[in-house]
Specification:
Strand 4, helix 3 and strand 5 form a beta-alpha-beta unit. The two termini are 19 Å apart. The chain is α/β, with parallel strands linked by helices.
């Protein structure tokens, strides 16, 4: 639901709240769309980051999709808005198949993911009983990051494929996710990981086809690998999510610059501890999350970078510590910079480590544009499973 009102100033907003720079977001979307067009591959944006119908409409290639989700709550919310081409990109549990079938009965082309014979049997049995051949992708483990069939375990792969194809479901293809790309230390390493991801999915798809089974979909993706893939030969679609907003983790990987980060938390100065070099604000971990994704990167951004109210970064000024409802701003250790002069009531923005986690703490985006007099729109988002 979109709520618009005459522009209000940031000073009128209650804090902490979530800001979204629409211009940066649009630039990020256009960048990845252009890259995928260059590869000739369809982009399936992952809507787990924004969890917002207003943002989703700006991400997808059509009002119906395609898109990926990570919860059935997302699938239900987006389906209600007319988005019908959805991949539920998390291994499905048997208890959730009733909700899957209910969505499909509403005309949603919802695909599920499995990585075991047990899960394939559960999906196939329920699909057969319902008379609805639930489409499924087999997840491939391309990097040891989490779930999936090992690319070299052809016997296991084909056993799952046959259960889906022969016992009541619909074998739609394979998918993988290079989550280990988040741990890369160079753009070249990300490109290598993208090729590893592509090879794992494409080789498994080839094995399935050589066994006489269908495999129309070959789905890969993470935000880093999507941006630096050298080739996407054999891939039919790419999934990415956090690219819509980016964050400090992505900036630390070299996928984006700090100036590309579109989501931030607006917070108010509520106190000072001069002897400790602290500025206190009303955004703690309930507003920012406890995500410390930059902790293992060459530059640790602690809980976030501090910007002025217009979004200009203060050099070496960080959200150093968080309590539940309070944050502590400090200078980076060893810095020669100075803390800004921020009186009680002053507002600043905090750029997050992990946009997905920080946005999940909030119910709406206050949308801003450079040069606009204030907030230009209020876009609701949702939470839950």
């Amino acid at each position: 639901m979109t709520l618009t009102a005459p522009p209000s100033t940031l000073d009128a907003l209650e804090t902490p709240c979530l800001l979204l720079d629409e211009s940066r977001m649009t630039r990020n979307i256009d960048r990845l769309n252009a890259l995928m067009a260059g590869h000739g591959v369809q982009l399936r944006p992952h809507l787990k980051t924004p969890k917002s119908i207003d943002v989703a409409r700006r991400l997808m290639s059509s009002p119906q999709g395609p898109a990926a989700v990570s919860t059935l709550q997302e699938a239900e919310q987006f389906a209600a808005a007319g988005i019908t081409d959805l991949l539920y990109a998390v291994g499905v549990s048997p208890a959730k198949l009733e909700r899957v079938l209910a969505l499909r009965a509403r005309g949603v082309d919802l695909t599920v993911v499995v990585d075991s014979i047990e899960a394939a049997r559960a999906v196939s049995a329920r699909a057969k009983a319902a008379g609805d051949r639930i489409p499924a992708l087999i997840e491939i483990d391309c990097d040891g990051h989490r779930a999936g069939v090992q690319p070299g375990d052809t016997g296991h792969l084909l056993a799952i494929a046959r259960v889906l194809h022969e016992d009541g479901a619909c074998l739609r293809g394979v998918m993988t996710h290079a989550g280990e790309s988040y741990g890369c230390r160079s753009v070249e390493a990300i490109a290598d990981m993208a090729e590893q991801e592509r090879w794992a999915a494409v080789s498994c798809a080839q094995a399935i086809r050589e066994a006489g089974l269908p495999c129309p979909v070959v789905s890969v993706g993470s935000t880093p690998t999507a941006h630096f893939a050298r080739s996407l030969e054999g891939v039919t679609e790419v999934r990415a999510g956090v690219y819509v907003f980016f964050d400090l983790v992505m900036a630390g990987l070299g996928v984006c610059s700090v100036d590309d980060i579109a989501a931030s938390v607006l917070t108010t100065v509520i106190g000072h501890q001069p002897d400790k070099g602290w500025i206190l604000v009303d955004a703690g971990w309930m507003a920012m999350s406890r995500d410390r994704g930059t902790a293992k990167q060459p530059v640790d951004q602690l809980y976030g970078l501090i910007c002025d109210a217009d979004g200009t970064v203060y050099p070496d000024v960080l959200l150093a510590e968080t309590n539940q409802e309070q944050g502590i701003i400090e200078l980076r250790a060893g810095s020669n910079a100075a803390l800004p002069d921020l009186p009680i009531g002053a507002k600043v923005r905090i750029l997050p480590n992990h946009a997905c986690a920080t946005c999940a703490q909030h119910d709406a985006y206050e949308v801003v544009r450079p040069g606009a007099p204030g907030v230009v729109a209020h876009w609701e988002r949702f939470r839950g499973w």
